[in-house]
Amino acid sequence: MSAPKTRVFIVDDHPLVRESLAGLIDQQPDLSVCGESDRSAAALAAIGTAQPDVTIVDLSLADGSGLDLIRDLRQQHPRVAVLVLSMHDESLYAERALRAGARGYLMKRAASRDVVVAIRRVREGRIAVSPELAEALAAKLVSGPPEGTDPVSTLSDRELDVFRLVGQGRETRQIADALHLSAKTVQTYCARIKDKLGLNTANELLREAVRWLAERDRA
Q1: Please, which residues have CB within 8 angstroms of residue 74's CB and are 6 or more apart in sequence?
Q2: d(CA 157, CA 35)
Q3: How far apart are CA 72 and CA 20, in angstroms?
Q4: How would you list the strands of the sheet with 104-107, edge to edge?
Q5: Is 11 within 8 Å of 37 (Cβ atoms)?
Q6: Helix, strand, coil shares of the chain as percentages rounded to 5?
Q7: Nearest residue to 195 via CA among 143, 154, 164, 167
Q8: What are the pLDDT digits (tens) for 96-155?
C-alpha cells in the first residue's frame, strides 16, 4: 500500500496564484491540495476541518496580515507545518515569519521545483529557506546584525504593516480597515514609527515610506 499523500492547504488572496499552486501540487505523486482560502478567518475555520499537513501562506491577505495567521495557526493547529510563499523581501520578512511559527519562507519568484521541495521539507519538520537566507541567518547568529542595518528592520511586525501601507498611499482609515484596527491605534503606530526612524512629520513619514517601498520593488 502506498503512503498517504501530504495534504496541502493554500492561503493567498490572488485566485491565479492559488490556481497555479494547486496545479503544481496536484501534479506531484505524493502531494494533494485539500483546500484554499483568501482570508485568515475563513482559512482557520477550514483548516480545522480539512486537517492539512502543510499550509502555504501569503503575507498579504484580504482580511489582514499573514503573520497574524501564522501565529494563530501555531496556537490553534500546532501540528500543521506552515510555508510562507510571498512577494515580500525575505531579507526583511523571513525572520519575522519564522519567529511567528513558519517552517519555511520562499519568494514567489522561486522555481516550481523549489516550492515542491520546500513543501516536503517542512512536512518532514525541517526548515526550508533559500541558500542566501540561510547564510544570512547563520551570519547574524554568529556575528549579530551587520553594520548599516536598515532602520526599518527595527520596526515591530505591526509597525511594519502600517509603514508598508503608508508607502502605498493609504489613508489612516484605510490602513485601520485593512489591519482591523482603530484609526487612533494606527496614529499611535505612526508616531512610534516616526520616533524609531527619526522623522518629525506625517509628510516625512509618507516620503520615507514611499521611498523605502520603491527601493524594495526595484530590488
Answers
A1: 82, 100, 101
A2: 28
A3: 26
A4: 31-37, 6-11, 54-57, 81-86, 104-107, 128-129
A5: yes
A6: 55, 15, 30
A7: 154
A8: 999 999 999 999 989 999 999 999 999 999 999 988 888 887 877 776 655 556 788 889
Alpha-carbon distance of 176 to 165, in angstroms, equals 10
Grid coordinates representing 3 are 503512503
CA distance 88 to 125: 24
Residue 138, C-alpha cell as written in the block: 547563520
**Residue 54 φ then ψ, to 5°:** -135, 140
The grid coordinates listed for 150 are 536598515
Helices (H), 56-111: 66-76, 90-100
- Quote the pLDDT of residue 33: 97
Domain ranges within the chain, ordered by starting residue: 6-142, 151-218
Q: What percent of the chain has pLDDT over 70?
A: 94
Contact between 34 and 56 (Cβ < 8 Å): no
6-142 carries CATH number 3.40.50.2300: yes
Examine domains 6-142 and 151-218 and report if their fold is the same: no
CATH topology of domain 151-218: Arc Repressor Mutant, subunit A (1.10.10)
Query: Which of the 8 DSSP states describes residue 127?
Result: -
C-alpha cell at 148: 548599516
H or E element: which one contains 107?
Answer: strand 104-107
Task: State how far the Cα of 200 lies from the Cα of 114, in Å rounded to an integer.
Answer: 44
β-bridge mates for residue 10, sequence order: 36, 56
